[in-house]
Amino acid sequence: MKRIAIFLVLVLAASAVAQGPQRYMSWDGFVQRGKVKVRAGGSTWSVNGQPVSHTVEIYESTDMARYIFTRLRGKVRPASDIAPNAGSIDFKITTRISGTRIAWVCGEDLRYVEAKSYVAALALLASWGPLHCG
C-alpha cells in the first residue's frame, strides 16, 4: 500500500514537472539558527502555479550540516522514496499545517525546499534531474 502511495505521488510530481517550474527571485544573506547567524541563500519558484522556495544554508563542515539536519523535525526517508536519482542521500520530510519541507545535506550545505503542496516540492526536485552531493 505504501509503495502504491509513493508511486501515485511520483506520477503527480512528474505531471507537474511537464508544465515546467519557473524561477523567480533569488536571495543571499543569513538565517538565524538559535544564537548563530548562518550564511544562506535561496530562490523562489513556481511549480504548476504553486510557490516553492529552495534554501541553502552553508556550514563550516559536513559534520555541522549533518548535526543541524538531525535536529530538524520530521521523518527520514531514503532517496528511493523521494528522488530516485539522488543516490544514497537521506531526506527529512516535515509536514505542517502550513506546508511541507524536504531537507537534505549536500557536502557542507543543508538544503531544503518548502511548499504548501508536497507534490509541488517533489516536482521541483524532480525537475533538477540527478542530485549529486560530495
The largest β sheet comes out as: 7 strands, antiparallel
H and E string: HEEEHEHEEEH
Q: How far is it from the N-terminal to the C-terminal residue, by CA?
A: 34 Å
Tally of DSSP helical segments = 4
Structural class: alpha+beta
What is the radius of gyration computed over CA atoms, rounded to a whole number of angstroms? 14 Å
Which regions contain 5 or more consecutive residues with pLDDT less than 50?
1-18
Mean pLDDT across the residues is 81
Shape: globular
Task: Quickly describe the structure.
With 134 residues, the chain is α+β, with helices and mostly antiparallel strands. Helix content is 31%, strand content 44%. Strands 1-2-3-7-6-5-4 form a 7-stranded antiparallel sheet.
Topology:
Elements: H1 2-18, E1 22-33, E2 36-47, E3 50-58, H2 62-71, E4 75-78, H3 79-82, E5 90-96, E6 99-106, E7 109-115, H4 118-127
Helix pairs in contact: 1-4
